Amino acid sequence: MHSRSVHLAALASFALAAGCADSQGPATRLNYVDPTGSGWRLVRDPSSTPERLVLAIVGPVDLDTRGVGFNLRAPAGVRFRSFDSSGWPIESTGVYELGNQDPCPPTDPYPLPNCLPDPHPPEPVLLAGGLKPGNVLTVGIFQKDRRVSPKPSGVPLARIALEVDPAAGLRAGAPLPLEVLKAKYSPEDIGAFSPTPTQEQAEKGHGVLFTLAVGTLTTR
Amino acid sequence: MNRTTLRRLAALAALAAPLAAAPASPAALPRDVQARIEAGRPARVARVERDLRARAAALGLGAADTLRTESSFTDEGGRTVIHLVHLHQGARVLGSQLVVHVEQDGALRTFGHALAAGIVLPGGPSITRDAAVAAAQVRLGARGPLAAEPAVERIVFPTRFSGARAFELASGRSSIHRGYAGPLAGLAPYVWAWRVHLQVHNALDGAADWSFVVHGDTGEILRADDLLRRATPAVGTGLGWHRGPVSLDMSQMNDGTYALLDTTRGTLPNPNLSYYADDGSGWTPTGMQVWWEEHDATGASTWNSFLFQGNASSAWGDGQPFTSFGAESGPNGQSAGVDAMVGLRTTWDFFGSVFGRNGLDGNGTTPYATALCTGMVPAGDSWWSVGAFGGYFGVGTWPLLADGVDAPTDLDMVAHEATHGVTSPSWDRYFVDSPGYEEAGLDEATSDFFSEMTEIWAARSGSDPANAIPATPGDGQIGRTFLRTGPLRWFDRPSRDGRSVDGWFDGVKYMDGHFSSGPLNRALHFLARGASATAGDDTHSIYLPAGMAGIGNDSAARIWYRAVTEYLVPDLTGGLTYDDAREAALSAAADLFGAGSAEAAAVEDAFAAVNVGQDHAGTVHAKVWFKPWRNGDYIEIDHIYSDDAGKRQYFPRGENVRPRITVENAADTSVTWSVGGPSMWNGADYYTMAGGRIEADGSWTTPFQMGWHAITATSVADPTQFAEGRAFLVNLDMDSDLEQDATDMAELSYSWYLSNGLNPSHSVFIAPWVDDQDVSTFVDAMKAAWPVP
Q: Are B410 and B304 found together in one domain?
């Protein structure tokens, strides 16, 4: 299937170049071929539908992380969409623990005999994103609580969704370049937890830049 | 249909439906009839309590819930007014209360905020009351001793009323400041809590009077209310030494000397003076009295205060402005004491003679004044302390400074402060008087209005009856001579001061109460004296261009007195609004004059003239308002740590964004935008800025200054209608790569719950800790700036 899609995409490119574009109808769907390699990459998620392409971010199997975020530019005619489940253009796969492990705030100046019930339904979490000018999707998912353990990252960690904008008039078979502008993950070692800040905490744990591989996106 | 109407309908359905409809109350009854009805008040209170117990289930109350009568009185028309508070397991449920009216014929009606139904809160607070006091003291941050033992009450606290304010003891200024907020997200709807009342009066801290709500399990400060009724440093009035010779009720003490202690006014001791020991001089905490603040010869306060006493004769004062620091108790200082006593006494007598009220609080509690202050209140200021049940009046800065202000002890200033004793008689019943609440403007306007009425009443001729307010116009001013260049505030067109506003708008609550009072001051002035139909007149309203006829001082004052004492009952949460005020006034007018009366119609027109509700003809205006906004939805939860909860929008700094606004009652919902807003005129909002460039289409390039920014949206269809909202600009670029994006959350993640000393995330807020508020702020700003369909 992948090799056939690539073949069709190549034919479409040739046809456009030859001035035969009118033979192709308007695109309504997206086709995606996963990138090769075992590093950080965006892969097609099984939850994709004919109308909506869902991509999952997957990391190296030997890397534990605490969160990941990236900026991805799509060409005109491709729309990023939000998930109903999160209200955001990013959806958690459940690998990262987003909540507060211990509901007792660790910094209060006096002892707390009891703490609030956990989990808190409205508890804010670091799962967010937005669509910046230039059709650039910026999304991130991070474990906020330093006491939560890092997670093996060689599995789908979060999802994003894309669609064809029917009004854009894209022709089927058109290649659509996806460009990763920036990607960062939160590393395994961010220093020991302590409510008292230390230099160790200041030096460790900054976001780590990495290369995020994307596959081949075409219309159909 | 507004909130109060809903509350009323709910209450009626639960309680009054089986009973006869209540008739309009008549005018004042003969005193013997009043006395007979008053004698039956305990029985009526008991009956109401029985009725409510029988209807407990219908009211949503469970086995652990009771209603306790907080206060009751019989008004001049024979109506018994009963204020009941809701208890759960014997503890007050803050903000849950009923006001019940029992008419002469026994008919019942209920008013006030809705009862909190379905509370299930077993156990009790797990931290001790001492721990709660300790937590409150940490928040207060006083360096000197407390002025009194802390008062502590175990309560059930609805967490939707959470709200913390910052305050600086040194300047006596309160403000919204995120740095004092705790991580309050995710609280249950009701929690156990302690109310803690703390007061300080000392050289290290100045004067402070605060009520705190402390979480009963975590010790967090859930709410803080400032109980000092401050005037702003630029406001005040009084040339008391100009009032000329007066006769005074005073006391001759055990040693034969005289004191400014009037035992004919006040039957209950003053709660603050009760802490003083009896010195054997004949002094008592029961009886109106005036004290003075001591200074050395240079004018430096010693932070001691004393009763004006030890005068060898019964003659006080020299009739001159004060200049004699170090000799405050002498004739020169006595002049200020005389003025304060006259103001306090006149206000007491006004409410007693006109409305039959027993003193300021209705119970005869002794008020007192402290004059010649420079420390307990700034020299050019005055305020009322709910906890002390007394007023503090500055010494003034003129004539020692040629461009200074006079001592604010003239009648209108003292009457203004003393009226706070009517609206906020105790720690258990007070108006919240802080920026962030419309209730603050209602409170200050009520003091302004009855101050004006007190002046008019006091100036009546000998032939005028003492139980009515003459029809003569007053001076229409507050602080008539305080500034020595003109009045502090005006009734006819409040914006003449350059700070107040003439009409209500969404966002008026952000103003200091002395300036958000403008619309109510104007409405009450119009109600009494009318409004002009001539554009350009000071009494012309763009919201009621045809003008209106006034109903006279006496009728207007009776309507508003009834409104604030019988309908507009504060529930300690600051929730009273201008809409509530209009409804209360309409109810009071219907009681006194009939629902279809000219007076009730005048109330409609007077409030419509300040952009509150429809006029009597039913004219509808467009309404522009900022709905509570978060995460793309209009909700009012989660961000609960400051007084303007729900009325904010978070945006990243230095980006192009689009604020949200709602327009109703107009086919054309478009608006024009501008940065800044009317609340910034008053100079009291030190933390809000106007910046960036906002286009007519609402596209706003935000400035780089983080913090609160005001933006204003004005209806295109009706340019008289506008709203001021708040946006908080944050820096999302926590990795300092000059881009604000979601990858910045990596830095927020690793610095969560670390102090700001060593992490970059404090750029979101200037906060001591990076916590869940920062998390929600980040994600809110992300979605507000760059929404995804």
A: yes
Q: How many angstroms separate the CA atoms of B515 and B130, rounded?
A: 39
Q: Among candidates B489, B514, B486, B544, which has minimal Cα distance to B679?
A: B514
Based on the fold, state whether residues B265 and B395 are members of the same structural domain: yes
pLDDT tens digits, B360-392: 999 889 999 999 999 999 999 999 999 999 999
**CB distance A69–B745 less than 8 Å?**
yes
Q: Six-digit token pair at B544?
A: 């009621």
Could you tell me the pTM of the whole model?
A: 0.77
Give residue B328's domain range: 237-430
**B residues 106-145 lying closer than 8 A (beta carbon) to A:** 126-127, 131, 134-135, 138
> What are B716's two structure tokens?
């295109």
Q: Within an 8 Å CB–CB cutoff, is residue A159 touching chain B?
A: no
On whether the CB atoms of residues A110 and A86 are closer than 8 A, the answer is no
Cα separation, B470 vs B474, whole angstroms: 10
Q: Which of B178, B197, B226 is the last residue of a domain?
A: B226
CA B522 to chain centre: 18
H or E segment to which residue B448 belongs? helix B438-458
Query: pLDDT tens-digit profile of A103-157?
Result: 555 544 433 344 444 455 567 789 999 999 999 999 999 998 888 899 999 999 9
Would residue B627 count as lying in a domain?
Answer: no
Position B443 in a domain? no
For the domain that residue B701 is a member of, what is the CATH number? 2.60.40
Q: Tell whether A145 lies on the interface with B, counting CB pairs under 8 A.
A: yes
Q: Is the pLDDT of residue B47 over 80?
A: yes
Which of A92, A107, A193, A198 should one mutate to test binding to chain B, selecting the residue with the greatest count of B CBs within 10 A? A107
Distances (CA, A) of B220 to B131, B154, B191: 11, 15, 12
> How confident is the model at residue B585, as a pLDDT?
98
From B725, B416, B431, B710, select the one nearest B577 (Cα to Cα).
Answer: B431
Q: Are residues B511 and B583 in the same domain?
A: yes
In a shared domain, residues B264 and B140: no
Q: B 497-556 residues with CB below 8 A of A?
A: none
CB contact under 8 A, A130 and B786: yes
Q: Which of B615, B631, B664 is the last residue of a domain?
A: B615
Q: Which residues pair with B426 in a beta bridge?
A: B429
Residue by residue, DSSP assigns B57-98 as TTTT--TTEEEEEEEEEE-TTS-EEEEEEEEETTEEEEEEEE
Contact B134 A128 (CB under 8 A): no
How many A/B residue pairs have CB atoms within 8 Å? 184
Let me know if B523 is exposed, middle or buried by CB neighbors in 10 A (0-12, 13-18, 19+).
buried
Residue A148 at interface with chain B, using a CB cutoff of 8 Å: no
User: What token pair was written down for A93?
Assistant: 């796969």
Provide, as residue numbers in chain A, all residues whose Cβ is less than 8 Å from the Cβ of B218.
105, 108, 112, 114-116
Most B CBs within 10 Å, among A132, A157, A165, to test the B interface: A132
A216 to chain B, minimum CA–CA distance in Å? 23
Contact A195/B at CB under 8 A: yes
Class of residue A188 by CB neighbours under 10 A (exposed 0-12, middle 13-18, buried 19+): middle
Q: Are A180 and A40 in contact (CB under 8 A)?
A: no
Task: Verify whether the Cβ–Cβ distance A186 to B772 is below 8 Å.
Answer: no
| CATH number of B560's domain | 1.10.390.10
Q: How far apart are CA B66 and CA A68, in angstroms?
A: 53
Number of domains composing chain B: 5
Q: Is B135 exposed, middle or buried (0-12, 13-18, 19+ CB in 10 A)?
A: buried
**pLDDT one-digit tens code per residue, B573-632:** 888 999 999 999 999 999 999 999 999 999 999 999 999 999 999 999 999 988 765 544
Residue B626 lies inside a defined structural domain of this protein: no
